[in-house]
Amino acid sequence: MDKVQYLRAFVVASVLISPVAAVACGGSTSTTVNRPASAAAGTDDATISTRVKTALLNEPGVNATAINVETASGVVTLSGQVKSGDEEQKAVATARQIPGVRDVKSQLKVGGN
After folding, report:
1. What class does CATH assign to 37-110?
2. pLDDT averages per 10-residue partition of the chain, 113 residues
3. Of 42, 59, 84, 103, which is most buried with the most CB atoms under 10 A?
4. Is 47 exposed, middle or buried (0-12, 13-18, 19+ CB in 10 A)?
């Protein structure tokens, strides 16, 4: 293979591989991405749920493992079991502090465990 053929093969290989490399490195080959309105604003529901759950896990006095978190259109619903009204209020207040949360609804049951 002479230098011209080698160079041509290298250029063709580079052109074919560059989109794969871009996607593999976290890039995108598309310039238009359709996202829900909440994602366009910066935070989608799955991200909000994850951030709320993480905040609850780090909140002293809240047993986050007994609390379920669901988010729809920025409205967080907490469900599960808490030991006291104080724990419920801490959980609700913690969820309200997360960016992107529009409202918090508590379906937490007080008492039990």
Report:
1. alpha beta
2. 63 58 50 43 85 96 96 96 96 96 96 70
3. 59
4. middle
For the chain, give every domain's residue range.
1-33, 37-110
Asked if 99 contacts 50 with a C-beta cutoff of 8 angstroms, the reply is: no
Rounded Cα distance, 10 and 14, in Å: 6
Query: 17 in helix, strand or coil?
Result: helix
The answer to whether 59 touches 91, Cβ cutoff 8 Å, is yes
Question: First-to-last CA distance in the chain?
Answer: 77
Across the beta sheet with 103-110, the strand order is 67-72, 75-82, 103-110
Residue 19: its pLDDT value, please? 57
Tell me how far apart the alpha carbons of residues 96 and 56 are, in angstroms, rounded to a whole number: 11
Contacts (Cβ under 8 Å, ≥6 apart) of 101? 48, 52, 71, 74, 75, 76, 95
Could you tell me the pTM of the whole model? 0.63
Provide the greatest CA pair distance for the chain.
81
Nearest to 47 by CA among 99, 108, 103, 110: 99
